[in-house]
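tRNA pseudouridine synthase B
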Amino acid sequence: MADNGLIIIDKPGGMTSHDVVARVRRIAGTRKVGHAGTLDPMATGILVIGVERATKLLGYLMGHDKTYAATVRLGTTTVTDDADGEIVDRVDAAHITNEQIRAGLQGQTGLISQVPSAVSAIKVGGRRSYDLVRRGEAVPLTPREVQIHAIEVHDVRRTRGEVDVDIVVRCGSGTYIRAIARDVGAELGVGGHLTALRRTATGDFDESVALSLEELGERANPVVVSLDDAVARSFPQRRVDADEARELSFGRRLTPAGDGDITYGAIDPEGAAVALINAHGKPIVVFKPA
């Protein structure tokens, strides 16, 4: 059985995140495996997998910022807002200038209201939005606030009335990159969709620590980031003594460390992660219960 910790997978295209988790379960020899943030089947890149006790971290890692490299195609609209969907409209985009493209993408940055892509895992009336779309049903989704820190344009290519724009996006959790492609295309009046998507980082974890599934299968221990290291790298630390560590193991509150909504990793004298606690000293997740 695998140790407690994280496995950083470089997900290949064509696989769902659930497919990757199923493969990791077989390799790690445990059912206690989960992921911190879904990637679409067409997307590649960083998928953070938690094993054993580290699965308790995943809900908190999902909230960390992410970085994506993507290609937006202007001039074509699809039902899924990406290349996997049926084309529903084509408009000649040859007249759109590079300056208009950059301005349109800049308008997608900051704290914005974004309607999620209809083909998403969001539940509508208890059913997944993507299931409803595939059945031909209309899916009204509520806009939500997302934080997009920056969108950098790396290249613009033009072919037969279509314009491909390579971008790098740094954003907060809950952002749909497909929706950026859809919305900038709509803003420019020519439509748009995503033709390529790669997540290059989730929080502190990037391609430098990522493994392919083939590489993972060749390792004696699949865990690449221990639970202790994952907590130390992902959260501000609060050092606790042996007595405080014991109190946390019983789920008891410590003295406050400050105000606000900061989540701390409580680290004992041996450097082991004991719990996640809030600024008021209340344990949120206990890794080593009494």
